[in-house]
Amino acid sequence: MSGPLLDIRGLTIGIPNRSGPPVQIVRDLSFDILPGEIFGLVGESGSGKSASALALMGLNRRPLTTLRGQALYGGQDLLAMSRRSMRKLRGDRISMIFQEPMSALNPLARIGRQIAEMFVLHRGLSWSEAGPKAVEALAAVQVPDPEGRARAYPHQLSGGLRQRVMIAMAMACGPDLLIADEPTTALDVTVQAEVLRLIRGLCERQGTAVLLISHDLGVIAQMCQRVGVMANGRLLELRDAKALFTDPRHPYTQGLLAALPRLGSRATEGRHRLADLDMAIDRDAPDFAATYLCPRGEAA
Ligand SMILES: Nc1ncnc2c1ncn2[C@@H]1O[C@H](COP(=O)(O)OP(=O)(O)OP(=O)(O)O)[C@@H](O)[C@H]1O
What we know:
By secondary structure, the protein is α/β, with parallel strands linked by helices. Helix content is 38%, strand content 22%.
Protein backbone atom coordinates (compact mmCIF):
# COMPACT_ATOMS: atom_id res chain seq x y z
CA MET A 1 0.00 0.00 0.00
CA SER A 2 1.41 3.42 -0.87
CA GLY A 3 0.52 6.58 1.06
CA PRO A 4 -0.90 6.73 4.54
CA LEU A 5 -2.86 3.90 6.04
CA LEU A 6 -5.08 6.34 7.89
CA ASP A 7 -5.34 10.04 7.08
CA ILE A 8 -7.13 12.11 9.71
CA ARG A 9 -8.10 15.62 8.67
CA GLY A 10 -9.71 18.25 10.87
CA LEU A 11 -11.25 15.91 13.43
CA THR A 12 -13.37 18.01 15.75
CA ILE A 13 -15.30 16.53 18.65
CA GLY A 14 -17.71 18.36 20.89
CA ILE A 15 -20.47 18.25 23.42
CA PRO A 16 -23.79 19.54 22.06
CA ASN A 17 -25.01 22.59 23.91
CA ARG A 18 -28.65 23.66 23.73
CA SER A 19 -27.96 27.26 24.52
CA GLY A 20 -25.09 27.80 22.09
CA PRO A 21 -22.48 26.21 19.88
CA PRO A 22 -21.08 22.84 20.98
CA VAL A 23 -18.23 22.84 23.47
CA GLN A 24 -15.27 21.56 21.47
CA ILE A 25 -13.02 19.14 23.31
CA VAL A 26 -10.93 18.12 20.27
CA ARG A 27 -10.28 20.79 17.65
CA ASP A 28 -9.12 20.35 14.11
CA LEU A 29 -6.92 17.34 14.73
CA SER A 30 -4.94 16.26 11.65
CA PHE A 31 -2.27 13.59 11.29
CA ASP A 32 -1.66 10.45 9.29
CA ILE A 33 -0.44 6.98 10.15
CA LEU A 34 1.77 5.13 7.70
CA PRO A 35 1.47 1.39 7.10
CA GLY A 36 3.40 -0.52 9.75
CA GLU A 37 4.58 2.50 11.76
CA ILE A 38 4.12 3.08 15.49
CA PHE A 39 2.67 6.56 15.87
CA GLY A 40 2.48 8.01 19.36
CA LEU A 41 -0.10 10.44 20.66
CA VAL A 42 1.08 11.95 23.90
CA GLY A 43 -0.44 14.55 26.19
CA GLU A 44 -1.58 15.03 29.71
CA SER A 45 -4.86 13.73 31.09
CA GLY A 46 -7.87 15.39 29.49
CA SER A 47 -6.03 16.54 26.35
CA GLY A 48 -8.40 14.58 24.10
CA LYS A 49 -6.35 11.51 23.17
CA SER A 50 -8.93 8.86 24.08
CA ALA A 51 -11.85 10.86 22.73
CA SER A 52 -10.04 11.10 19.38
CA ALA A 53 -9.29 7.37 19.25
CA LEU A 54 -12.85 6.43 20.17
CA ALA A 55 -14.26 8.80 17.53
CA LEU A 56 -12.12 7.09 14.88
CA MET A 57 -13.65 3.77 15.84
CA GLY A 58 -17.19 5.18 15.81
CA LEU A 59 -17.43 4.75 19.57
CA ASN A 60 -17.94 8.27 20.92
CA ARG A 61 -18.77 8.29 24.62
CA ARG A 62 -22.05 10.10 25.17
CA PRO A 63 -22.68 12.98 24.89
CA LEU A 64 -19.55 13.50 22.77
CA THR A 65 -20.25 13.91 19.05
CA THR A 66 -17.98 14.11 16.01
CA LEU A 67 -18.67 17.57 14.63
CA ARG A 68 -16.35 17.65 11.62
CA GLY A 69 -13.47 15.94 9.94
CA GLN A 70 -12.44 12.98 7.87
CA ALA A 71 -10.51 9.82 8.62
CA LEU A 72 -9.64 8.20 5.32
CA TYR A 73 -8.80 4.52 5.44
CA GLY A 74 -8.43 2.71 2.12
CA GLY A 75 -10.44 5.44 0.40
CA GLN A 76 -13.31 5.23 2.91
CA ASP A 77 -14.09 7.84 5.53
CA LEU A 78 -14.34 6.08 8.89
CA LEU A 79 -16.25 9.04 10.32
CA ALA A 80 -18.98 8.75 7.69
CA MET A 81 -19.29 4.98 7.69
CA SER A 82 -22.51 3.14 8.55
CA ARG A 83 -22.54 1.39 11.93
CA ARG A 84 -22.75 -1.92 10.17
CA SER A 85 -19.63 -1.32 8.03
CA MET A 86 -17.79 0.00 11.06
CA ARG A 87 -18.66 -3.11 13.07
CA LYS A 88 -17.21 -5.25 10.27
CA LEU A 89 -13.99 -3.27 10.27
CA ARG A 90 -13.57 -3.12 14.05
CA GLY A 91 -11.71 -6.07 15.45
CA ASP A 92 -10.80 -7.18 11.94
CA ARG A 93 -8.88 -4.44 10.04
CA ILE A 94 -8.72 -1.94 12.92
CA SER A 95 -8.66 -3.11 16.51
CA MET A 96 -8.25 -1.48 19.87
CA ILE A 97 -6.84 -2.28 23.29
CA PHE A 98 -7.43 -0.26 26.44
CA GLN A 99 -5.89 0.38 29.81
CA GLU A 100 -8.36 -1.87 31.58
CA PRO A 101 -8.78 -5.23 29.86
CA MET A 102 -11.84 -6.16 31.94
CA SER A 103 -13.80 -3.46 30.12
CA ALA A 104 -13.30 -5.37 26.86
CA LEU A 105 -13.62 -8.93 28.19
CA ASN A 106 -16.88 -10.67 29.01
CA PRO A 107 -16.53 -11.81 32.64
CA LEU A 108 -18.95 -14.70 32.06
CA ALA A 109 -17.29 -16.27 29.02
CA ARG A 110 -14.18 -18.42 28.90
CA ILE A 111 -11.08 -16.78 27.46
CA GLY A 112 -10.77 -19.27 24.61
CA ARG A 113 -14.33 -18.70 23.49
CA GLN A 114 -13.90 -14.93 23.47
CA ILE A 115 -10.85 -15.17 21.24
CA ALA A 116 -12.45 -17.87 19.06
CA GLU A 117 -15.37 -15.52 18.49
CA MET A 118 -13.06 -13.18 16.55
CA PHE A 119 -12.35 -15.95 14.03
CA VAL A 120 -16.02 -16.94 13.84
CA LEU A 121 -17.25 -13.37 13.33
CA HIS A 122 -14.56 -12.04 11.05
CA ARG A 123 -13.14 -15.10 9.32
CA GLY A 124 -16.25 -17.25 9.02
CA LEU A 125 -14.68 -20.23 10.83
CA SER A 126 -16.84 -22.75 12.66
CA TRP A 127 -16.51 -22.86 16.46
CA SER A 128 -14.66 -26.16 16.24
CA GLU A 129 -12.15 -24.67 13.80
CA ALA A 130 -11.84 -21.46 15.82
CA GLY A 131 -11.06 -23.19 19.16
CA PRO A 132 -7.52 -24.33 18.23
CA LYS A 133 -6.86 -20.95 16.57
CA ALA A 134 -7.69 -19.28 19.88
CA VAL A 135 -5.14 -21.46 21.67
CA GLU A 136 -2.56 -20.56 19.00
CA ALA A 137 -3.38 -16.88 19.50
CA LEU A 138 -2.78 -17.25 23.27
CA ALA A 139 0.55 -18.96 22.59
CA ALA A 140 1.51 -16.10 20.23
CA VAL A 141 1.12 -13.60 23.08
CA GLN A 142 3.24 -15.85 25.31
CA VAL A 143 0.52 -16.90 27.71
CA PRO A 144 1.87 -19.92 29.59
CA ASP A 145 -0.24 -23.10 29.32
CA PRO A 146 -2.42 -21.64 26.55
CA GLU A 147 -4.77 -24.63 26.46
CA GLY A 148 -5.47 -24.41 30.19
CA ARG A 149 -5.80 -20.64 30.08
CA ALA A 150 -8.27 -20.88 27.18
CA ARG A 151 -10.63 -22.66 29.60
CA ALA A 152 -10.25 -20.00 32.31
CA TYR A 153 -12.53 -17.03 32.97
CA PRO A 154 -11.07 -13.50 32.93
CA HIS A 155 -11.15 -13.07 36.73
CA GLN A 156 -8.89 -16.13 37.09
CA LEU A 157 -6.00 -14.36 35.32
CA SER A 158 -3.61 -11.66 36.54
CA GLY A 159 -3.84 -8.15 35.09
CA GLY A 160 -0.79 -8.79 32.90
CA LEU A 161 -2.27 -12.00 31.48
CA ARG A 162 -5.63 -10.34 30.89
CA GLN A 163 -3.83 -7.62 28.94
CA ARG A 164 -2.15 -10.33 26.84
CA VAL A 165 -5.56 -11.91 26.20
CA MET A 166 -6.89 -8.58 24.98
CA ILE A 167 -3.85 -8.23 22.71
CA ALA A 168 -4.48 -11.77 21.40
CA MET A 169 -8.07 -10.80 20.56
CA ALA A 170 -7.03 -7.53 18.98
CA MET A 171 -4.33 -9.16 16.84
CA ALA A 172 -6.27 -12.34 15.98
CA CYS A 173 -7.27 -11.20 12.51
CA GLY A 174 -3.95 -9.51 11.66
CA PRO A 175 -5.33 -5.94 11.65
CA ASP A 176 -3.83 -3.11 9.60
CA LEU A 177 -4.05 -0.80 12.60
CA LEU A 178 -3.99 -1.39 16.34
CA ILE A 179 -5.15 1.51 18.50
CA ALA A 180 -3.53 1.02 21.90
CA ASP A 181 -4.90 3.46 24.48
CA GLU A 182 -2.65 3.50 27.57
CA PRO A 183 -2.15 -0.26 27.14
CA THR A 184 0.32 -0.60 30.00
CA THR A 185 -0.68 2.18 32.38
CA ALA A 186 -2.37 -0.19 34.84
CA LEU A 187 0.53 -2.67 34.87
CA ASP A 188 3.59 -2.69 37.06
CA VAL A 189 6.76 -1.58 35.41
CA THR A 190 8.38 -4.94 34.59
CA VAL A 191 5.15 -6.30 33.10
CA GLN A 192 4.79 -3.00 31.28
CA ALA A 193 8.10 -3.48 29.44
CA GLU A 194 7.17 -7.06 28.49
CA VAL A 195 3.78 -6.06 27.15
CA LEU A 196 5.25 -3.20 25.10
CA ARG A 197 7.85 -5.52 23.64
CA LEU A 198 5.11 -8.03 22.83
CA ILE A 199 2.98 -5.42 21.06
CA ARG A 200 5.94 -4.23 19.03
CA GLY A 201 7.06 -7.74 18.07
CA LEU A 202 3.58 -8.89 17.02
CA CYS A 203 2.90 -5.74 15.04
CA GLU A 204 6.25 -5.92 13.28
CA ARG A 205 5.61 -9.54 12.31
CA GLN A 206 2.08 -8.87 11.06
CA GLY A 207 2.86 -5.49 9.46
CA THR A 208 0.33 -3.82 11.74
CA ALA A 209 0.57 -0.07 12.34
CA VAL A 210 -0.03 1.17 15.88
CA LEU A 211 -1.60 4.34 17.20
CA LEU A 212 -0.10 4.33 20.69
CA ILE A 213 -1.78 6.69 23.13
CA SER A 214 0.03 7.47 26.34
CA HIS A 215 0.69 10.21 28.84
CA ASP A 216 4.06 8.55 29.52
CA LEU A 217 6.89 10.03 27.47
CA GLY A 218 9.15 7.12 28.41
CA VAL A 219 6.77 4.65 26.76
CA ILE A 220 6.41 6.87 23.70
CA ALA A 221 10.19 7.36 23.39
CA GLN A 222 10.75 3.62 23.56
CA MET A 223 8.14 2.62 21.02
CA CYS A 224 7.33 5.26 18.43
CA GLN A 225 8.73 6.45 15.13
CA ARG A 226 6.60 9.63 14.99
CA VAL A 227 4.83 11.45 17.77
CA GLY A 228 2.02 13.99 18.04
CA VAL A 229 1.78 16.10 21.19
CA MET A 230 -1.74 17.08 22.30
CA ALA A 231 -2.92 19.62 24.82
CA ASN A 232 -6.39 21.06 25.31
CA GLY A 233 -7.81 19.15 22.39
CA ARG A 234 -5.24 20.42 19.89
CA LEU A 235 -2.23 18.89 18.24
CA LEU A 236 0.67 21.17 19.09
CA GLU A 237 3.60 19.42 17.50
CA LEU A 238 4.09 16.44 15.21
CA ARG A 239 7.63 15.18 14.68
CA ASP A 240 9.87 12.21 14.27
CA ALA A 241 10.32 10.79 17.75
CA LYS A 242 14.04 11.41 17.84
CA ALA A 243 13.68 15.04 16.74
CA LEU A 244 10.90 15.63 19.24
CA PHE A 245 12.88 14.28 22.15
CA THR A 246 16.19 15.86 21.24
CA ASP A 247 14.94 19.20 19.91
CA PRO A 248 11.35 19.92 21.00
CA ARG A 249 9.97 23.04 19.29
CA HIS A 250 6.72 23.84 20.98
CA PRO A 251 7.07 25.45 24.42
CA TYR A 252 4.53 22.97 25.80
CA THR A 253 6.63 20.01 24.62
CA GLN A 254 9.76 21.68 25.96
CA GLY A 255 8.01 22.02 29.30
CA LEU A 256 6.90 18.38 29.32
CA LEU A 257 10.43 17.19 28.64
CA ALA A 258 12.04 19.61 31.05
CA ALA A 259 9.76 18.37 33.81
CA LEU A 260 10.89 14.78 33.36
CA PRO A 261 13.60 13.37 35.58
CA ARG A 262 16.65 12.56 33.47
CA LEU A 263 18.99 9.68 34.05
CA GLY A 264 22.15 10.85 35.68
CA SER A 265 20.58 13.72 37.57
CA ARG A 266 20.77 13.30 41.33
CA ALA A 267 17.05 13.06 41.70
CA THR A 268 16.95 9.97 39.48
CA GLU A 269 19.94 7.99 40.70
CA GLY A 270 17.65 5.58 42.48
CA ARG A 271 15.91 4.85 39.21
CA HIS A 272 18.92 3.65 37.28
CA ARG A 273 18.07 0.06 37.99
CA LEU A 274 14.62 0.48 36.53
CA ALA A 275 15.89 2.08 33.32
CA ASP A 276 18.65 -0.54 33.04
CA LEU A 277 16.01 -3.19 33.28
CA ASP A 278 13.90 -1.64 30.56
CA MET A 279 16.85 -1.22 28.28
CA ALA A 280 17.99 -4.76 28.93
CA ILE A 281 14.57 -6.04 27.91
CA ASP A 282 14.48 -3.75 24.95
CA ARG A 283 17.99 -3.45 23.62
CA ASP A 284 17.07 -2.02 20.26
CA ALA A 285 15.07 0.85 21.75
CA PRO A 286 16.40 4.17 20.50
CA ASP A 287 19.13 5.66 22.68
CA PHE A 288 17.06 8.70 23.46
CA ALA A 289 14.55 6.46 25.22
CA ALA A 290 17.16 5.79 27.89
CA THR A 291 17.23 9.43 28.76
CA TYR A 292 13.54 9.70 29.27
CA LEU A 293 12.50 6.39 30.74
CA CYS A 294 10.85 7.10 34.02
CA PRO A 295 8.46 5.19 36.21
CA ARG A 296 4.79 5.58 35.50
CA GLY A 297 3.16 8.47 37.30
CA GLU A 298 6.37 10.44 37.66
CA ALA A 299 6.03 12.28 34.39
CA ALA A 300 4.88 15.84 34.79
N1 LIG B 1 -18.37 11.37 28.02
C1 LIG B 1 -17.89 12.60 28.22
N2 LIG B 1 -18.70 13.61 28.55
C2 LIG B 1 -18.21 14.85 28.75
N3 LIG B 1 -16.91 15.18 28.64
C3 LIG B 1 -16.06 14.22 28.32
C4 LIG B 1 -16.48 12.87 28.09
N4 LIG B 1 -15.41 12.12 27.80
C5 LIG B 1 -14.34 12.96 27.82
N5 LIG B 1 -14.74 14.21 28.13
C6 LIG B 1 -13.87 15.39 28.25
O1 LIG B 1 -13.14 15.50 27.05
C7 LIG B 1 -11.80 15.89 27.32
C8 LIG B 1 -10.84 14.90 26.70
O2 LIG B 1 -10.97 13.64 27.38
P1 LIG B 1 -10.10 12.37 26.98
O3 LIG B 1 -10.59 11.21 27.78
O4 LIG B 1 -10.08 12.23 25.51
O5 LIG B 1 -8.66 12.82 27.47
P2 LIG B 1 -7.32 11.97 27.45
O6 LIG B 1 -6.28 12.85 26.86
O7 LIG B 1 -7.52 10.65 26.82
O8 LIG B 1 -7.02 11.82 29.00
P3 LIG B 1 -7.09 10.49 29.90
O9 LIG B 1 -5.83 9.77 29.61
O10 LIG B 1 -7.18 11.01 31.29
O11 LIG B 1 -8.34 9.77 29.46
C9 LIG B 1 -11.67 16.02 28.82
O12 LIG B 1 -11.82 17.36 29.16
C10 LIG B 1 -12.82 15.21 29.34
O13 LIG B 1 -13.28 15.73 30.56
